Amino acid sequence: MVHMQVPFYRHSLAPENSKYVAKVLETPFLTSGPIGKEVEAQLSEYFGVKHAKLVNSWTNGAVATLLALDIGPGDEVIVPAMTFIATANVVELVGAKPVFIDCDPDTLLITPELIKSAITKKTKAVIPVHMYGQMCDIKAIKEILPKDQKISIIEDCAHTFEAKFNGDRPGKYSDVSIFSFYATKNVTCGEGGAIITNDEKLFERIIQAVLHGMSAGAADRFKAGQYKHWGMDHLGTKANLPDLLACFLPDQIRTVDERLVIREALAKNYETNLIGTRIKLPKSSKNIVHSRHLFPIGVGPSARDKALLSLGESNIGATVNYRSVPSMKFYQNKYSLGASEFPISQAWGEGTLSIPLFPGMTDAEQNYVIDVLLNKIEPMIGDI
Ligand SMILES: Cc1ncc(COP(=O)(O)O)c(C=O)c1O
Questions:
Q1: What is the pLDDT of residue 226?
Q2: Which terminus of the chain is more exposed, N or C, with fewer CB under 10 A?
Q3: Using the 8-state DSSP alphabet, how is residue 295 labeled?
């Protein structure tokens, strides 16, 4: 076996991208301005929605969205147990209660039935997460929500940009969808995100909520040299994305579907080599386009930590996406949750790890990862 070093992720932004920063330096405001507006128009067109707002992270965008929806103390928001902690933390941050639900054992996505079983009179929203890049069925989720109670659907699109479910992109059936442009995401500017919606009224509240609740942003306050007073009717946070970061996005959005072809080929190659072994893979539904953001594998609780160690020794970057959120001490202490309450998320979370998948990955790098998986990791696995 040829030994090499394979990072978990390597971005594809070439040094030439610094020319975009130089362009921003020529403008008077380095913060949110004309470049961000261009990106927002680009996002609206890509997703076929009326409105888009750039934010400085998924997390801050979600806090702003929950504030804009007037969700707070006394309210409940349904979230998956199998997700990154941010999905639940934002609910805590606005003072509402995250109500966890388990996931489908094959896809690891939440389902309409699981959501239905968790709805109470206090439920104000549900946050389905398109885990690893595979979309949940948002249309089916919408159909099971009670007609006499307003429950907003907030899509967590941190793992997806390019995905489709039955031909539909995120944003079509939900109230609002939120993306992350964090360092390892399929579209990235280091830290960042975006909110999209077709709801005019909600969007008005969101654009204020991302800027302290102010009625006018910096570029608008100083338009034409004349100062304009602003007001504040609702509480907001600070979540706007500066043009200094937004400038990295237009080219990536234009070419994201080209990179998806490469991601898909890498993922298919992993699948071809791993199917039939004791390494478990999440299943994909029919009629989807998968964003192939992450490539998680299941090795089982008895082998997982040994496998992480062995991958580290083989110089292969690996991580865990994710241990179940209600198993975190904060949530266990606050809500007296037992591990057995979310058995599928718990078991997957204790037995999973993610392997490298990024568009710049070479054939030699992927072959090395596959060699290590087949020769070192698979033999560690008991029957799972
Ligand atoms: C499912 C999910 N939701 C939310 C987030 C938070 O995104 P951000 O880092 O942009 O706040 C992440 C980040 O990795 C995530 O994986």
A1: 79
A2: N
A3: E
> What own/partner pairs with CB < 8 Å and gap ≥ 24 does 119-122 have?
119/78, 119/145, 119/146, 119/149, 119/151, 120/76, 121/149, 122/74, 122/75, 122/76, 122/97
CA 374 to chain centre: 30
Mean pLDDT, rounded, for 251-270: 97
pTM listed for this prediction: 0.96
For residue 328, name the pLDDT band (cuts at 50, 70, 90).
Answer: very high
- Average pLDDT on 146-175 reads 98
Which among 134, 210, 148, 220 is positioned nearest to 176, based on CA atoms?
A: 210
CA separation for the pair 156, 136 (Å, rounded): 10
Q: Is the CB of 58 under 6 A from ligand 1?
A: yes
Q: Is the pLDDT of residue 261 over 70?
A: yes
Tokens describing residue 327: 């198993």
Paired tokens of 284: 């994909």
CA of 134 to the centre of ligand 1 (A): 15
Res. 221 pLDDT band, cuts 50 70 90? low
Q: Which of 8, 56, 57, 59 to mutate to test the pocket of ligand 1 (most atoms within 8 A of CB)?
A: 59
- 157: nearest Cα among 103, 86, 258: 86
Q: Is 224 left (phi over 0), alpha (psi -120 to 50) or beta?
A: left
- Residue-level pLDDT at 29: 86
Q: Does residue 185 carry a catalytic annotation?
A: yes
Length of the chain: 384
Write phi, then psi, for 116 (nearest 5 degrees).
-55, -40
Is the pLDDT at 215 greater than 90? The verdict is no
| Position 338 confidence tier, pLDDT thresholds 50, 70, 90 | confident
Rounded mean pLDDT of 212-234? 79
- What is the position in ligand 1's atom list of the atom closest to the CA of 191? 10
Q: In this structure, what token pair is assigned to residue 60?
A: 């801050």
Catalytic residue among 19, 185, 228, 329: 185
In terms of Cα–Cα distance, which of 173, 169, 148 is closest to 157?
A: 169
d(CA 334, CA 330): 6
